[in-house]
What does this fold into?
Amino acid sequence: MSVLTRKEAQTRAQLLDVHRYTVDLDLTTGEETFDSRTTIRFTARETGNTFVEIKPETLRALSLDGQPLDPERLDGNRYPLDRLTAGPHELTADATMRYSRTGEGMHRFTDPADGETYTYTQLFMEDVQRVFAAFDQPDLKSVFDLTVTAPAGWTVLGNGTATQATDGRWTIAPTPPISTYLVAVAAGPWHSVTTQHAGLPFGIHCRRSLAPHLDADADEILGITRACYDRYHEKFDEPYPFDSYDQAFVPEFNAGAMENPGLVTFRDEFIYRSAVTDTERQTRAMVIAHEMAHMWFGDLVTLTWWDDIWLNESFAEYMGYQTLTEAALPRALDSVRAGETPFPDTWVEFGVSRKGWGYDADQRPTTHPVAPDPDAVPDTASALLNFDGISYAKGASALRQLVAWLGEKDFLAGINTHFARHKFANATLADFIDNLATATDRDVHTWAATWLRTTGVDTLTAHVENTGHSWNLAVDRTGDRPHRITVGAYDHSLDTQTGTDQLVLRERFELDIPQNGTPATQPGTRPDLVVLNDNDLTYAKVRLDPHSWNTALTHLSGIPDALTRALIWNTARDMVRDGELHPTAYLTAARTHLPHETDLALVNGVLGFAATQIADRYLAPQDRPAALATLTSLCRDLLRRTEGLTAKDWEQGLGTRTPGSPDPGLRLTAVRHFIDAATQPEAIQEWLADGTVPGGPELDPELRWRILTRLAVLGATDEAVITRELDKDPSATGQEGAARCRAALPTPEAKEAAWQAMFTDDTLSNYLFTATAQGFWQPEQSELLHHYVTRYYPDATALAARRGPAIAEAAGRHAFPVHAIDAQSLQRGTDALDAPALTPALRRKLTDQLDDLRRALAVREAH
It folds into this structure.
């Protein structure tokens, strides 16, 4: 299959104007394929040659202006249109298309819970060709007019309002001009909750087996949707540009969500069938806000070519977090007490869960600018590699720094100019910067050059000097970006009620970096703690002065602001990764301070890094048992802190609590991490047998499968127990849980069966492949798995070539031998990168994984 190059796209865009697609899909023709008939009306500006893309199972017929074309001329995914004359044309294509099981094109899923079948499209980048014929590039926008024939009893959803003309035949209202990759259809016996807001129909949809769980959260989901919609209309001059707003929670979705105009698709894990924390609910709310921001930035105004994907994702990432913080979220949410906002500061969660993603990506050999040079994205295959922590987290951080430097008023004025100038059209980075420049006297072009066209992470290092009646702060900077930061100065204070030594904020002041050689001078004695970037408004690693760092490590839980604590934890994380802080020092800090931490996102983020990186990778194998013992001891402390919860607390969560009372979300987090760190099976076996953790919670399906997975790793369960559990929970997530458990069993037979399922028979869906891979590699089973490290590289290379980018991504991310931390494994992987058969998607994942392996070895050697 040929990938589209930027040069080809530019040539085709100069030749064609595309006006309208009329697409007729028939989903009643079988379980493996569906029928697709397409008419494209377009104009050629001059005589020339071009092509149309389609990836059919069978191409039955084509015609141009009523004249039949030879289907045999299809070359891979391209049909040539030679000697196209200037003027209007009509191209028709009639094809049989294949359903996908990998979340690409038209994905088909049969729910094991009730046997119902669902289909939905994911057409991003170049997968529209799997559904209908198209001139598939983002700057050839068009009106799309779709008709879908579906089985009786199904509901069809699309970019516009859908009406059922006859039984099974649905007509979707024509779209405004949009890009090919944004067309969306979702069909099946959906369970739906609908409402009206601001004169538009709003709906949320899921498969029927999840109906009770959607209904339980419908008020929350719709309330957040309405609040974000209203807040965006306060920010943006352009009104919402489509005729309806549906959100479909679909099975086996590869991304978190997709911003199809009028029909956003989400992975249906966001419909919670088991207990979740308020942080997880906040994440779902942020994704809702993120995708809605795309309706303007991405859908109304679309990138011209994929080098500007950051314009979509960085903007939506920033707006998602910022708008969720600002929106007047409904007070009816269960998680709200009188006088409180529904969620904590969303930027704390961003700092602890997203920003590290950007920092890590930006220090690998695959780093790239937020806005790469167009020549660095020559085709769609290379563009797909840039959906990473740089395009999302670093880009959002850069925009947050831009707002701090520019001011929100001018930033929004420039954004609104951008929308007005390019609505229903396409734009580039240059257009975006030019439009920002209309709203300010600041030199945004130079800012863009230093922030968006460069790579790497700056490091800001504080030097504090006490001069008697004042103190001086000098900041060293590695890197060339200017930074506007907030500096926080904190002093010790004795809490007379508790007798504990805490830190209180003395002052915060702004500082521009570089300082041009002049230290900042503040009155008074030097503070006990000086924190650079205290509000986390810039993107840079931070190093405190030695006195402040010692204070931070010993008094971290006494810092009053959660965002400041998040920045200190990120500093500790960076120092571990850079070999500047011993991994056990991080564990000691976690053991000391997490029992007193009040922000759930911080607890989960710190525990996650301590478990998956420090215990599993950065410490030598002989030190891992002690690390796991530290984690289980810490989790026991958290469990003791959250004793006394009632059944009503578990049912209604935070809404029933008075300040200072136990947090069920904190207890749930502790239970999960206790299970994952267990080295002896007895305690969690008792929980599984009793169906509850003493003091709660009762074991829901997620916790039961979590325990069973850990028991499988420890060799304390078997196939018969897994089968009985699957009989109790035959759902899709139950199937994934069983696959994960079977792959985790420490027997040669179980490992070989899992390997064959992943790399040989090609029948696993994307989700079942991931679950199997997650169970397979376990640090406790290194001897059993040793020979699979050698097998991984050729088998993954062949798999990626057969099954495409989505499975290549899963194979590189989840099936990689991540716990094989030794020089031999690194050399074996490095040699594999020379294989010419590596697909771009797998090569990128392997390069990143091997760099992380190299870093883990360096951390071990440093200590």
Summary: The longest helix spans residues 211-235. Confidence is low (pLDDT under 50) at residues 334-340. Residues 518 and 687 are 61 Å apart (CA to CA).
